[in-house]
Amino acid sequence: MVRWRRLCAALAALGLSVFGAQAHEMPWTDANDAVGEIVQRADNQGRPFAIVDKRAARLFVFGAKGELIGEKPVLLGLARGDDAASDLASRLPSSLLPAERTTPAGRYSSEPGHNDKGEDIVWIDYNASLAIHRLRPSPPAERRAERLASANPDDKRISFGCVVVPVAFYEEVVRPTLGSTRGMVYVLPEGGAMRDAAAAPRQIVSSAR
Fold this sequence. Notes:
The protein has 5 helices and 11 strands; from the N terminus they run H-H-E-E-E-E-E-E-E-H-E-E-H-E-H-E. By secondary structure, it is an alpha/beta fold. A hairpin with a 4-residue loop joins strand 1 (49-53) and strand 2 (58-62). The chain is globular. Strands 1, 2, 3, 5, 6, 7, 9, 10 and 11 form a 9-stranded mixed beta sheet that branches. Strands 4-8 form a two-stranded parallel ribbon. The protein has a single domain (46-204), classed as Beta Barrel (L,D-transpeptidase catalytic domain-like). It has helices at residues 2-13, 30-41, 144-149, 167-174, 194-198, and strands at residues 49-53, 58-62, 68-73, 76-77, 106-114, 120-125, 130-134, 157-159, 163-165, 183-187, 201-204.
């Protein structure tokens, strides 16, 4: 890991990257280490993939060969933590207590689908109602648009657990990649260690309805 970080840093000084994107396009976060391991192992199985860096509150979307397609700040689950409630599959998101509203870490097989309102989204975990979706209208007190614009990652903790992205980013980056075919989504744990997110599948997503 240390050698990988040093290699990335050396290439960044030359304006290059080991994963096919200009270094200046990708700010340095835990995702830099993660994408190297994913590409090196071919862990994404030839699919487009995304990395959710919870510590930085950013989403990185890559093509099947590891080329960076785009990245943006995102909103995440209100509570810090890497595990989901044990009975989450049988509960409505609105029933979750504040401490249960996490964005659980893991390696997920994603797929495009629709929510109960017919909106197209990307399912990260269908059974747990965990998805990547556009910013939606919300109660003014939540200030979701302001939170997305904030430079402070702590301001991004507000959702029930879903990864919420700006509308334009969803339309221009997420929808043409993860929204058009099966992919992989890696949600890095709060500690940022890639091995915990990519060691083994957390689940396989059910077919979206």
